[in-house]
Amino acid sequence: MRARQRKRRDLLRARAGYACEYCRVTETLMGGRLTEDHIIPLNASGTDDLDNLCWCCWWCNVYKGSQTTARTPRSGAIVRLFHPRRNRWETHFRWSRNGLRILGRTMMGRATVEALRMNDPDRMATRRFWVIHRVHPRDTS
For the chain, what are the domain ranges? Predict the structure, then answer.
């Protein structure tokens, strides 16, 4: 990796607090580094500017793919996905009382939870481990 790329990656990691900017899993909990995501994909006129990049986990990166919009589960309306540079996580999401699920507070939040499959069974099983061992991101931030 070239020095410029390494510097950009280090900036992204630090800005994100070493956690996925979508689901909040930390690098420590994942057991390794996360990856960069083009919030607006390059094939949809996105850029490599830092304002269009976020740090995210493998799951969120794969499930998001090139999506920028998704349907809300309740109404089926098409809305923009959560944009970590423009939107505040706390405005659009919250943790369930038991810490296993991420709940959408807004149409954008609910559509993002569904599109990125933030509550699939494997992810919830992982969060159960976090809760049991008191290492859940909501408890450590």
Answer: 3-140
Q: Is the Cα torsion angle 31, 32, 33, 39 positive or negative in sign?
A: negative
DSSP, collapsed to helix, strand or coil, labels residue 130 as helix
Contact 92, 105 (CB under 8 A): yes
Query: What's the N-to-C CA distance of the chain in angstroms?
Result: 30
DSSP one-letter code for 108: H
Maximal C-alpha separation, the chain:
47
pLDDT, tens digit, 9 for 90 and up, residues 11-30: 999 999 999 999 999 999 88
Compute the residue count for the chain.
141
Q: Are 123 and 117 in contact (CB under 8 A)?
A: yes
Question: Distance between CA 61 and CA 26 in Å, rounded?
Answer: 14
3-state SS, residue 96 = coil
Amino acid residing at 111: A
